[in-house]
Specification:
Radius of gyration: 41 Å
Shape: elongated
Bound molecules: adenosine-5'-triphosphate
Low-confidence stretches: 1-14, 194-241, 849-883, 888-932
Distance between the termini: 119 Å
Strand order of the largest sheet: 6-7-8-3-9-10
Structural class: alpha/beta
């Protein structure tokens, strides 16, 4: 390449070492600036200084303008050199290192400028460090440039250079000055800040584009990943629904969790370490064969890098061979090229790599999903009560994101980076540093534009997702609530609602789609400009015999090969942050420890009859509001204890403590003298059978649902349990009998059938302690009677705890405990409590519990069944019993009034209601009403 200094006589033999030094500085200076900026910015991000930096610098704008001047001076110098070259017909118009140095400085300071102009509250040392470096290097470069010039070469351009350098130096000093002056005035103002602070929240970042940096911006404004932090966003979002859709809510919660953990951990490195919990699932720890596969995949990737390097080179060789520039045989070269293409194709290395990788990938996916599912099942009630099941399921399915992150970094980013570095080095080596510079500058501009475009499309994308959820919701609501829609004649309304939602979604999708098309167009324009610049340079070199046509072809092929890595890198940050957010949701679950676990080495429960003792039990769900206060009672083996009281009093909570779904806050629960916290949890639950208020069945056959209590039970055992639960005959009438599918959560069964299947399930378990939580609620009289009969079978001889609102169902319990506001206010038998004339008597008087017992049983049988030692649950009141019970209540002065009132009501009903009429929530019939 021609050296203009020779033409100008600037290069002296005596100044050769200085010239060499200057040459290396031209390359080193921008490289140092760039390396320093990237390294310190990475440290600032990794150590969360970008998040904690909260105060805007008062002179940030002035500093940014100083930087603009610095960049402009480099431009001006380049322009002057170009003009001089054009006027004097010299090309290249100056030393290669001088021009590359100026261009690289423009690029390096351009990167610094891009960072500074986008940052709201920047961490300053990366920027100030660059200015500091400029303070040292600029005078050094300027004086060296002067020293290596001969006096006769000090014409106009030299003076221009010196002036530009001087202005630049001044701009650097000004930038530093602004920084320190701004700091000083900020410190002074800080003292008076508190007095001046507005009472209203200021929106200092209103115009700040959050999209530029998901992480830091969110943290600095409305929290990490905030969804409504900019005016742009809020404006754009205002035309959509204000409500947060489930996707946004999950994203926001994950962002908040991420920010919280980041702050706790202090930096990204320790934060990333917490993901090590997934290591055993991602890396096949105990599987040597899979480990070997991973290593081989690594070799495949390296081989692929090498092939990617060889292919463009080989094309160049073929070209030169065809044009006779080298002495190779084009046939052989083409054959070799074909071989390379085959190895690089989907049928070559790629196939091998996939074959090696697929088992590893599926190992990881399977291992994470199973571990997450198992972890969730082993978590305690507090976790399951506080999380929505859809969120948990979403989080479990996020396992894939962990392997996505690793795959993106190890198998895509790393090889692509190697490809790009190799291409850059090879192009610089074969076509000179100008070509190298063009490559790197194009890549930098491409990346900048691509990341900016992705960020700019963020809010449009968010709107699209919101519209998509809205459409989904409207559709789902219409279909699920079809009967309501149809019966209220609102089909037209629903159609309109849906079409509006679809229109809205389509408009927003189009916006996003068009945005992406535009972004791609812009990115490819950048690439095209770079390619054209590179191609012109190569053509110049070919015409000046310093390059071959083969190298030109090689250049074009490398450029084509660089497109996909560049696009990938532009979207890498975004995709990793999305995967990280998803992984965060799973990590949160995986880090949750079950609150109810068996103590280490806890012995199994020694069951000796089923005595249950609550001693000074206090409990709170949230450690703030006391739900149970000082609960004391003992149930002897085989006893039936009923809990009554107002809704929300804490009755079901008592049952949950016994089943150890929660642990007491104070006091203890003992079974046969053993604190349930000291025994094996599994052995405790093995002794307890629960019939909940709303039993949940699996979407499976009745047979399998009942058998769930004892997976080894035979069909005959299941039939027996169902007979005992008085549901067998009904099941037999179903078209598929025991093989009938019950539907999701048992929706295909009626309430009474569902409850009896649940009772059959509990009977099959043969528990020693029975918990019935309003097991006969919401069913008709006849079904209730059947259920009560089934319960008698279940509870016989077992310690039984019943929660009931209908007092008629528990009046024969051995002990009735009245709970009010989490405290036991009364306990005793029905008669004792009626006599005591307290809360229970009051409740009793309010309930008209008159219900006919169809006298199907012969009198003797009835007497026999009365004599049987059963669970003492009343399934009904006989007419005599009813009269005597009411007489008792009537004899109470306090109840006389109440009774008069209730009787009045009952009588009122008697006159004008039919057989199915209910009074005060209890079914009544004319037969009894007459008696009353
Ligand atoms: N998982 C939970 N987390 C927080 N609070 C809860 C939880 N479960 C119940 N509570 C609260 O505890 C109190 C007692 O609830 P509990 O279900 O024991 O009442 P209850 O007497 O059985 O009521 P009901 O007769 O209506 O079933 C209520 O105020 C309820 O809101």
């Amino acid at each position: 390449m021609a050296d203009p200094y020779d033409a100008d006589g600037a290069d002296h033999a005596a100044g050769l070492p200085l010239r060499q030094f200057l040459l290396s500085l031209h390359y080193a200076y921008p490289a140092i600036i760039f390396a320093y900026y990237m390294a310190t910015s990475t440290v600032a991000v990794c150590t969360l200084q970008t998040i904690s930096s909260e105060h805007a610098h008062p002179r940030q704008r002035a500093i940014t303008w100083s930087l603009v001047f610095v960049i402009l001076t480099y431009f001006a110098q380049l322009l002057a050199l170009g003009i001089q070259g054009a006027v004097r017909h010299i090309f290249p118009f100056a030393d290669q290192d001088t021009v590359i140095g100026l261009m690289s400085c423009t690029l390096a300071f351009g990167v610094v400028f891009a960072g500074l102009s986008e940052a709201t509250n920047p961490v300053w040392y990366p920027y100030m460090g660059c200015f500091g470096l400029a303070l040292v290097f600029e005078p050094l470069l300027a004086s060296l440039a002067l020293m290596v010039r001969s006096p006769e070469s000090l014409h106009f351009i030299a003076f221009f250079d010196i002036s530009a350098a001087a202005i630049r130096y001044l701009a650097v000093i000004l930038a530093l000055g602004f920084f320190f002056e701004g700091n000083r005035s900020a410190r002074q103002e800080k003292g008076t800040d508190s007095e001046r602070q507005s009472l209203l929240k200021t929106n200092s970042h209103a115009n700040h584009d959050s999209d530029s940096d998901d992480r830091s911006d969110g943290a600095q404004t409305n929290g990490y990943g905030s969804t409504s932090d900019t005016s742009t966003d809020s404006n754009q979002s205002s035309d959509t629904d204000d409500d947060e859709n489930p996707y946004e809510r999950r994203q926001r919660q994950a962002s908040e969790a991420m920010e919280k953990r980041l702050k706790e951990k202090g930096n990204w490195v320790t934060y990333a370490k917490s993901f090590m919990v997934f290591f055993p699932y991602v890396w096949p720890v105990n599987n040597r064969a899979l480990q070997v596969r991973v290593v081989l995949v690594g070799f495949c990737l390296l081989a692929m890098n090498f092939i990617n390097f060889l292919i463009p080179r080989q094309l160049g060789i073929i070209m030169d061979s065809l044009s006779g520039r080298n002495n190779t045989n084009p046939w052989n070269e083409v054959l070799f090229f074909a071989g390379l293409k085959l190895v690089a194709s989907e049928a070559g290395l790629s196939l091998l790599r996939q074959w090696l990788w697929i088992p590893v990938e599926f190992y990881s996916f399977g291992a994470i999903s199973t571990a997450a599912y198992s972890h969730v099942l082993n978590l305690s009630s507090d976790f399951h009560d506080s999380k929505s099941s859809s969120d948990i399921m979403m989080a479990i399915s996020c396992g894939q994101s962990i392997s996505n992150i690793l795959e993106s970094i190890c198998f895509r980013a790393a090889p692509m980076l190697i490809d790009m570095v190799v291409a850059f080095v090879y192009l610089s080596a074969t076509l000179g540093p100008y070509e190298g510079f063009i490559t790197i500058a194009t890549a930098a501009v491409f990346m900048y534009i691509a990341t900016r475009m992705i960020a700019a499309l963020k809010s449009a994308r968010r709107n699209e997702v919101g519209a998509w959820y809205k459409e989904h919701y409207v559709r789902q609501a219409g279909i699920q609530g079809w009967s309501t829609v149809a019966s209220f004649n609102q089909i037209g309304h629903e159609e309109d609602r849906y079409s509006t939602a679809v229109e809205d979604r389509v408009t927003k999708t189009q916006k996003v789609y068009f945005g992406y098309v535009l972004a791609y167009a812009l990115q490819f324009l950048v690439l095209l400009s770079g390619l054209l610049a590179g191609a012109f340079l190569a053509v110049y070199q070919i015409t000046h015999q310093s390059a071959t046509p083969g190298q030109f072809i090689m250049l074009l092929t490398y450029w084509a090969q660089m497109v996909s890595p560049l696009s990938f890198f532009a979207g890498l940050g975004k995709s990793i942050s999305r995967d990280l957010l998803q992984a965060e949701q799973l990590l949160e679950i995986m880090q949750t420890k079950p609150s109810i676990v068996s103590k280490e080495g806890a012995p199994p429960l020694r069951f000796t009859g089923g005595e249950v003792c609550f001693e000074n039990v206090c409990f709170s769900y949230d450690k703030k509001k006391d739900i149970l206060k000082n609960i004391n009672f003992t149930a002897t083996p085989g006893m039936t204890v009923a809990f009554v009281g107002a809704t929300g009093a804490g009755k079901s909570t008592i049952l949950k403590l016994l089943d150890r779904f929660y642990d007491v806050t104070k006091g203890s629960v003992r079974v046969d003298g053993q604190d349930i916290r000291d025994v094996d949890l599994y052995s405790l639950r093995a002794q307890i059978g629960v019939v909940p208020q709303a039993p949940i069945l699996f979407d499976d056959t009745i047979m399998n649902n009942v058998r769930y209590a004892k997976l080894t039970a035979t069909d005959a055992e299941v039939h027996e349990a169902c007979k005992a639960a008085a549901i067998h005959e009904q099941i037999e009438t179903f078209s598929d009998g025991y093989q009938t599918k019950v539907g999701e959560r048992g929706v295909k069964l009626s309430g009474g059938e569902l409850q009896r299947v649940a009772i059959a399930r509990a009977i099959l378990k043969r528990p020693s302690i029975v918990l019935l939580d309003e097991a006969t609620s919401s069913v008709d009289t006849e079904t209730e009677q059947k259920i009560q009969e089934a319960l008698q079978v279940l509870c016989e001889g077992r310690t039984t705890f019943i929660v009931a609102h209908r007092l008629s169902t528990i009046m024969n319990a051995d002990r009735i405990i009245v709970v009010t506001g989490g405290e036991i206010v009364e306990q005793g038998s029905h008669d004792d409590l009626i006599r005591a004339d307290g809360k229970y008597a009051e409740l009793w008087s309010k309930q008209i519990f008159v219900k006919p017992k169809e006298d199907k049983e012969p009198r003797e049988d009835k007497a026999a069944s009365k004599g049987r030692k059963g669970p003492n649950i009343v399934n009904d009141l006989s007419a005599e019993a009813t009269s005597s019970e009411l007489a008792k209540v009537k004899s109470n002065p306090i109840n006389g009034q109440a009774n008069g009132h209730t009787n009045g009501q009952a009588n009122g009903h008697t006159e004008d209601s039919d057989d199915s009429a209910e009074t005060n929530g209890d079914p009544t019939t004319p037969a009894h009403k007459k008696e009353v």
